[in-house]
Amino acid sequence: MTAEGVPVEQSGPLHPRSGAETDGRPAPGWASDNTPATSGYLLAVVISWMLISVGSFASDFLLEEGLPELRGITLEDLGFGIFFLAMWSVVVGFFGALTAPFGVAAVHFACRRTPNQWLHVAAAGFVGGVAVYAVAVVFGEPWRDWDKMAAGVGFCTAIGRAAVIPLVPAVRNRQLARQFG
Questions:
Q1: Which residues form the domain of 108?
Q2: How far is 162 from 40, CA to CA, in rounded Å?
Q3: Which end of the chain, C or N, has fewer beta carbons within 10 A?
Q4: pTM, rounded to two decimals
Q5: Residue 3 pLDDT > 80, yes or no?
Q6: Total tally of structural domains belonging to the chain
């Protein structure tokens, strides 16, 4: 309705959350109101990277060798462990830098029309696990337990994507404000 009370003809469907008129198509290119913005994807990748680094470090080096007795650990041992964890994070980051851009793009374009965020999380977990298999094939299976690593990376990427679910409504609101505001 206009200010004078005259009804305005609607030319497209209404947005399901805001009631604003849309043309029913997702925004062109990268933009979508069902996914986090680029900063959200970067945050998801960083969270996944941290979880994968700590988780793989703990499983490969601490649990496999057996947990050391805490009474015998010195500050020097603790410092070496932190240094080694930092170096391990760089190695994990190298493999992540090879695969994360492709995984983010695959999940984004596959799920951009799907409003259910848990499907996005499942897709991210699946793509993260498949990425480990791709790296294993390209580099000649560098890990003994690459199937366990694939499950761990898939789990961590799913957690990373789930962590940015709260950002999606902000992206929706920002795009609606830009479009109709």
A1: 38-166
A2: 11
A3: N
A4: 0.72
A5: no
A6: 1
